[in-house]
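Quick one, T. Sequence first:
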Amino acid sequence: MSAGWSIYVIALIILNVAGCVWLLWRTSSLRPGDPAPDQTGHVWDEDLTEYNKPLPRWWINLFYLTIVFSIGYFIVYPGFGSFAGTKGWTSVGEHDADAADARAVLDATFARFAGKPIDEIAKDPEAIRLGRKIFANTCTTCHGSDAKGARGFPNLTDADWQWGGSPDDILSTVLNGRQAVMPPFGDVVGGAKGAGEVAVYVQSLSGQRVDAAMAAAGKPKFEMVCSACHGMEGKGNPLLGAPNLSDEVWLYGSDFGTIRDAVLEGHNGTMPAHEPIIGETRARVVAAWVWSQSHGGAVQ
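Structure tokens:
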């Protein structure tokens, strides 16, 4: 807070406190010339009379006590301009202390899973229950509450893994995230026509019924451009995050238009690193739950 704003806040506080004191003093007793408590002269319906009685002294004193309390508050806690208060309290410090307490409780809960392989953790029913809760809080936005994914977000309950499905691969994905980049190849394969031919050939790899002539025209383009990542047979490469194009699992869809657009425009899929978000041990626990979904070890 700048010096100017600090002076403004201090002056405003002093003005308000002083105004409250003056108002209580001014209105707490009858003044010369005021009508008697039962002589205001205001009468309605013959017997309804407005009186002029001040507040009881004990009530007035309570108001004075609140003013004294507010002065003490501004001495102990921040609020009086840039004065930090004698206690040195801050909302940031309070938050950090509460967060540290919460982390200590979590660390104690998850301590026994630290450093263990996720396939071993997955044998523990308590770990599976904890992992499911972590998944629900952290991962369902993209992968769904049932972990079956959606368009652009992989299904985690089957045996198809873009980056590999071993315990170490899954743990690495959760801890470090993934960046799956497919560049646009429209200019390389000959524009929309060439991309369409490649798309038809890709469809043929998974056994779809396609135009044989277009597939034949797309094959050399695929082998020249796409095989570097997906392999000559389109089986993919988990080291690169290049998916298998010869099965029935499609991350974005297997229709002609979707595949052609992918060749033309590319894709950029991002899985954020979760170690900075939930910590290394909790990442292991949720990775164990994910691994269990495709290995029959889920505990409901």
